[in-house]
Amino acid sequence: MECVMCQSRLDVHESLMRENGESVLQSFKNVSNADSQKGTCNVFSMLCNPDAPIDVSLCKDCTTSSLDEMKRQLAEVDAELINYDKALQDLSLKSSATQWNDVDATAAQLQRLTMEEATLLEELRTLEEQEAKIKKENRELDLTLSTGEKESDDLYRIFRNNHRMFLQCSEECQSYQLRRNLMEESLEMLKSMSTLDIAFCISIHENYGTINGLRLGRLPHEIVEWTEINAAFGQVALLMQILSERVGIIFTDYEIVPRGNNSAIRRLSGTKTVEYPLHGSGGWKPFGQSQLDHAIVGLLQCLIQIEAKLRERHNAVSPVLMYRMKGEQIIDNESPYRVKMQFNSEERWTKAMKLLLLNLKRAIAISVKLPEH
């Protein structure tokens, strides 16, 4: 058998053997074998076991050292026990000394805490009421906010529609303003223009006076057809009729009948009326065409009456036309030119027709500046 601590061999005295010594030796062997196999046996626990202290096999030296260690631990436990008893006594004395002194303070503190509890409960109830009131106000504000947001959305839609309409109206106004400016410019341009001057374009083409491109006259080296001359007389008759209406005059002793290249001049003498054709035909005759000559003279007398009316409306004493007219003559630089073909050359008659047209052009320029009659 071996020692459970140092593993040295032990000799067992016969006096320690039981009657069935075999069982004791067997228990020693079992303990030794178990301790040797596990290596975790608590020697002190086995020694303190009151059931079978002899079951622990120890040598003398191990037994002595074990007893010394157990004594040392026992002394430490006794010292700790003394300290614990002292501390317990101190606590008991302090508790008994302060127990009666703290009763009044504890009661006062309890009363104060009770009052604070009541105050806090009252504040709690007040806060709960305020919370409920605030929650109610919040619900009302949420409802108002939702209503306000809906109204805001509606107003924004209305504003957006109005803004779109405003932009459209602004664009239309700008368009109308531009159109108005254009119309005003066009109106000013039209006011500055003479419709008579446009409708009856009188100009000089080489040796001829023309009206709307129609030559009024003829020369020996350049024959102008009577159809062109008659059409030019028709334009002159129409122009003089319009000028008479413009200046507000009723011709005396004469009446113009504009009918294109078949126009005529009527001579009014009392109840008798004679119509002279303002158109000719055939070649150039030395004695002229008496009917056409009377018509041209009547045309010149009508222009003389128009000039007199223009002088009256302008309060002018001197002639207002470019060339002076008298009887059947038009005077240029003191040189008279007869408007009749009878006993007249083609060149001088053509010059007289050119001066007649230039006087008509001047009469147009003066008449457009007059106010409406």
Automatic annotation (TrEMBL):
Domain of life according to the entry: Eukaryota
Domain Atg6/beclin coiled-coil as annotated: residue spans: 58-185
Keywords: Coiled coil
Gene Ontology CC entries for this record: phagophore assembly site; phosphatidylinositol 3-kinase complex, class III, type I; phosphatidylinositol 3-kinase complex, class III, type II
GO MF annotation terms: phosphatidylinositol 3-kinase binding; protein-macromolecule adaptor activity
The Atg6 BARA domain, residue ranges: 190-367
Coiled coil (UniProt feature): 67-147
A UniProt-annotated Pfam family: APG6
GO BP annotations listed: autophagosome assembly; cellular response to nitrogen starvation; late endosome to vacuole transport; mitophagy
Family designation: Belongs to the beclin family.
Name of the protein in its database record: APG6 domain-containing protein
